[in-house]
Description:
Blueprint: H1 6-25, E1 26-35, E2 46-54, E3 64-73, E4 79-85, E5 91-97, E6 104-105, E7 108-109, E8 114-115, E9 125-129, H2 138-148, H3 157-161, H4 163-178
Parallel strand pairs: 1-9
Antiparallel strand pairs: 1-4, 2-3, 2-5, 5-6, 7-8
Helix pairs in contact: 2-4
Amino acid sequence: MKKTPRIGSLSLTVLVCAVLIVSCGKSTVTGRVVDAETGKPIEGAAVHIFWAKSGSGPPGLGGEVRVDEAETLTDAEGRFEVPKYNKYSYTYNMAVYKKGYVCWSSDKIFPTYSEREDFELKNEMVINLALFKEEYSKVKHAHFTIVASINRTEHGIFDKAVESEMLIVRKNIKKNQGD
């Protein structure tokens, strides 16, 4: 009878543990972005998600520690995929933006700034983007968009998508400094 070398069983044990740790902590979640009125998919919407956990320190004073973030654009069917972490260990903030639409945030709802209570991060979620209405303040919406995605550090897809909103905020700041 041939014996399996001890190092082989140890390596297998380490591999199994690593797979279990990864599968328990992080996976991916999929969804679609659609027009709120028509239900048609929105291609090219920028999706950003930020993950954090409680920092060390006294309760309420430890702050949050960045765990991960990701950004992507929706495809022709409005589909996207982003990382998902164990909801009991981490908090998240998600923002979706497409020019001509109201920025969507997992925390607040524009233009009322009320808390979003109807959203759950899950596979095949559907995010409805409402068209921007003329009666909305462009300046307030620009600020809302910037705040909705404030935790991002990757300056790429999402920043490129919200460039026009950033410009509105900068012009507003400059105008108010001149008063």
